[in-house]
Design goal:
The complex is a heterodimer.
Chain A: E1 5-7, E2 10-14, E3 19-24, E4 32-38, E5 45-50, E6 56-59, E7 62-67, E8 72-77, E9 86-93, E10 99-101, E11 105-110
Chain B: E1 5-7, E2 10-13, E3 19-24, E4 31-37, E5 44-50, E6 53-57, E7 64-68, E8 74-78, E9 87-94, E10 103-104, E11 108-112
Parallel strand pairs in B: 2-11
Antiparallel strand pairs in B: 1-3, 3-8, 4-5, 4-9, 5-6, 7-8, 9-10, 9-11
Classes of the chains: A mainly beta, B mainly beta.
Chain lengths: ~110, ~110
């Protein structure tokens, strides 16, 4: 059974502050690590797909890093804005296409 | 808009009944995935189809079945419904190759009373 863990479960951050959270996954049989952003009442939206150890991806104020040897990925948000409030999901993929999702980090930005 | 269409948006039914959830993938996507999200649980993978064939199976109950039709739309059939089947059911699609980003529909919220 693949275990993908995300921490913290929830986070409150003041607008303008930067924040980060963690996704831990099995370090064996790694194929890819996906990050999704899920706003309430909407569908999960793909942020990044990371495949190589040491990968770093960036999209605006959001960036992510990947360490496949130790089995973790960090998601960073710089200068948080109210629209960043969402649940951030990571998902681990082995050789096939199936994604195993973590339970997410629920981020709330306080204006 | 992800391009993945799920119908209906909401479904309310009684225990013991049978329902069908429908998903139309993004144009050009050959893979369709079904996920279940129950209260306090992460997205649980149920089943995947690729170009009409079952490709991978997850924690799908025997009372549940799915298929993908020649036009690539997919249906998830849930039968002998129980209270615990109440959940948000998502469909996602992908090309099935390369980085395999999955694009999610808006989900069907099923309430079993």
């Amino acid at each position: 059974i693949l275990n993908v863990e995300q921490s913290p479960q929830s986070l409150h951050v003041q607008e303008g502050d930067s924040t980060n959270f963690t996704c831990s996954f099995p370090s064996s049989n790694f194929y890819a690590l996906h990050w999704y952003r899920w706003e309430t009442a909407k569908s999960p939206e793909a942020l990044f797909v990371m495949t190589l150890n040491g990968d770093e991806k960036k999209k605006g104020r959001i960036s992510a890093t990947l360490n496949t040897k130790e089995g973790y990925s960090y998601l960073y948000i710089k200068g948080s804005q109210p629209e960043d409030s969402a649940t951030y999901l990571c998902a681990f993929r082995v050789g096939n296409e199936k994604l195993t999702f973590g339970t997410g980090t629920r981020l709330t930005i306080i204006p | 808009d992800s391009g993945v269409t799920q119908t209906p948006k909401h479904l309310i039914t009684a225990t013991g009944q049978r329902v069908t959830l429908r998903c139309s993938p993004r144009s050009g996507d050959l893979s369709v995935y079904w996920y279940q999200q129950s209260l306090d649980q992460g997205l649980q993978f149920l089943i995947q189809y690729y170009n009409g064939e079952e490709r991978a199976k997850g924690n799908i109950l025997e009372r549940f079945s799915a298929q993908q039709f020649p036009d690539l739309h997919s249906e998830l059939n849930l039968s002998s419904l129980e209270l615990g089947d109440s959940a948000l059911y998502f469909c996602a699609s992908s090309t099935g190759v390369a980085k395999n980003i999955q694009y999610f529909g808006a989900g069907t919220r099923l309430s079993v009373l």
